[in-house]
Specification:
- The structure is a single chain.
- This protein folds into two domains: 169 residues, Rossmann fold (3-Layer(aba) Sandwich), CATH 3.40.50.300; 192 residues, no CATH class.
- The protein has 18 helices and nine strands.
- By secondary structure, it is α/β, with parallel strands linked by helices.
- The longest helix has 14 residues.
């Protein structure tokens, strides 16, 4: 029952960031989720929401007890007692031009893998925002991340530590959420098309009892060196962007070493399909005659490529070309533009040709991305 409740109330990254932003000044949220899910990216997301705060990354896996704070030997002669100097990664030394402490956002990353002594040393910091005799700025935000214990990668959460913090589960992103992120982050369109056709690449091991049911992902019951996560799929995208410099054998080998042999085979299938897409130049210069792919997967890749790379000077040629695509593809583009996170939304929606198309085709807006 407990696992069912945790699954029911697991949060996505945006919800977790909102929770941390809301309560993080008073209480420490520990975000627990699958590896490669993007937990560390929450520091960047929070920094964008709190531009006056200094973002700080504290890596628990590299710390021993002496790395939390060390004696200031000069204080013995001055004050007759030893004062402790905290690690700079805790942000207690940061001051503005007037000498006042600056608010910080401290992410205690990989908390569950930390040295037990370091976990003890940080208990007061995570509960009271204080190390030794030094306190953080009262507007400071502290949160922590860790992997799920079921992954078997050494994450241990002591009960007395958990009682001081708020432990929440982060659910794994759906394939559509990964695609949305990838569009805005400039992922290779071939990788986005592969994810669209193979949502199992983004599945969590907790949804798969028998690891043979999904050979692409990490599973604690299977010995897989390389596997698919949003992080490794991102790495594949980076490789695919440089594929013109690699022969097919080298490209395939690099993908195998990133996501495993079976996921690599899927991606290579889409690479071969991608080579048959119309060039961007043909769409820009001759939208009425540029090639329209025959397969649905290839059309998806054309749409994802456009969403990622579209610029103001060729919105009209694209719209002319898009009207030659089927309604599902047009709906995919429209809903991609309407996504609240789409970075080019204002540019596209500000175009008269897009507004004219939207007025004629508003019934397509309910389609899936």
């Amino acid at each position: 029952m407990t696992n069912q409740v945790h699954a029911q109330y697991a949060l996505n990254l945006d919800q977790t960031v909102n929770l941390i932003s809301t309560v993080g000044k008073e209480r420490t949220v520990l975000a627990q989720g699958d590896m490669g899910q993007g937990k560390s990216s929450m520091l960047t997301m929070l920094a964008e929401q709190h531009p006056n705060h200094v973002p700080i990354y504290f890596d628990m896996t590299t710390k021993d007890l002496g790395d939390v704070m060390i004696p200031d030997l000069g204080s013995v002669e001055k004050d007759g007692c030893v004062r402790m100097v905290p690690n700079e990664e805790l942000g207690l030394h940061l001051k503005d031009a007037n000498g006042n402490m600056r608010p910080v956002i401290v992410m205690v990353d990989e908390y569950g893998k930390g040295n037990p002594a370091v976990k003890l040393a940080l208990l007061r910091f995570m509960l009271e925002r204080k190390i030794g005799s030094v306190s953080l700025h009262p507007d400071s935000i502290v949160f922590a991340t860790t992997n799920k214990g079921g992954e078997g990668v050494g994450d241990m959460l002591p009960p007395h530590a958990c009682n001081r913090i708020i432990v929440v589960q982060i659910r794994k992103s759906t394939h559509l959420e990964v695609i949305e992120f990838g569009i805005n982050d400039g992922w290779d369109h071939t990788m986005l098309g592969c994810i669209k056709d193979n949502p199992q690449l983004c599945q969590s091991y907790e949804d798969v009892k028998d690891p043979t049911e999904n050979p692409f992902i990490f599973h604690p019951k299977a010995q897989r060196v390389s596997f698919s996560t949003p992080r490794s799929l991102h790495a594949c995208s980076d490789i695919l962007k440089k594929r013109e410099h690699l022969d097919d054998v080298t490209l395939h080998a690099a993908l195998i070493g990133t996501v495993g042999d079976q996921a690599a085979a899927l991606i290579m299938t889409h690479v071969k399909m991608s080579d048959q897409l119309p060039s961007l130049e043909s769409i820009k210069n001759d939208p009425k005659n540029a090639i329209v792919p025959k397969s649905v997967a290839a059309v998806c890749m054309v749409v994802y490529r456009t969403l990622s790379t579209l610029e103001k000077d060729w919105v009209k040629p694209w719209m002319d070309y898009m009207e030659r695509l089927d309604t599902e593809a047009q709906a995919m583009f429209a809903n991609g533009v309407r996504s609240p996170k789409y970075s080019k939304q204002a540019m596209v929606m500000g175009s008269q040709v897009f507004r004219d198309w939207a007025l004629k085709n508003n019934h397509l807006y309910t389609a899936d991305v």
